[in-house]
Amino acid sequence: MTTQILLAGSGGQGLLFAGKFLAYAAMIEDKEVSWYPSYGPEARGGTSTCSVILSDEPVGSPIVQQPDILMVLNLPSYLKFMPAVQPGGLLIVDSSMIAETCARDDIRVCCVPATQMSYDENMKGLANMILIGRMLKESGLLLPGTVEPAMKKCIPPAKAAMLELNLRAIALGAAA
After folding, report:
1. Closest to 167 (Cα-Cα) out of 124, 125, 131, 129
2. How many whole angstroms separate alpha carbon 156 and alpha carbon 159?
3. How is residue 161 annotated by DSSP?
4. Which fold has domain 2-175?
5. Apex CA 118: angle with CA 112 and CA 122, to 5°?
6. Among the listed residues 80, 67, 66, 112, the one whose alpha carbon sits nearest the alpha carbon of residue 9
7. Enclosing H/E stretch for 132
8. What pLDDT, on the 0 to 100 scale, is given for residue 11?
């Protein structure tokens, strides 16, 4: 089975980190993985996407054109990529940043006010991981026991204090 995931938003929203987390988690589960970041020349605020493919067999191309799962954190990304979600796919939307209502009835849509939740819970900058938590709950992509070891692989030693906060953000998203 192959799952194609596209994470999209603005630079600085943690999409590349979220994609790296998914890739490490899948590798821990012995899946074939592709992680392909793409971002504009702007350091923060420019367009940013991250394609992640998780599969039981080798991945032929890292490009995700019709995602099974789309996670969007800003309106331009929503408008651009939402039509490409595969029928039967999953759309995860940060409703704090996107007020649009999805008219498609052939996909599952989960609206989570992740940015607002991150501020309310003193987790500024972790809307990405709140949405990842919801994605994991809705999709069943990863085994629960994979989350913490994957997060430990992603967080550098200099930022070890962020481990617990990221895990809390994932749990918050799963409960949303």
Report:
1. 129
2. 5
3. T
4. Pyruvate-ferredoxin Oxidoreductase; domain 3 (3.40.920)
5. 155
6. 80
7. helix 127-139
8. 85
User: pLDDT value at position 45?
Assistant: 60
Residue of 3, 107, 112 whose CA lies nearest to 51:
3
Structure tokens at 96: 């704090």
**DSSP 8-state assignment for residue 36:** E
Look up the pTM and report it. Answer: 0.94
DSSP sequence for 86-130: PTT-EEEEETTT-------SSSEEEEE-HHHHHHHTT-TT-HHHH
Handedness of CA 106, 38, 112, 23 (dihedral sign): positive
pLDDT at 20 over 70: yes
In angstroms, rounded to a whole number, what is the distance separating the alpha carbons of residues 155 and 18? 11
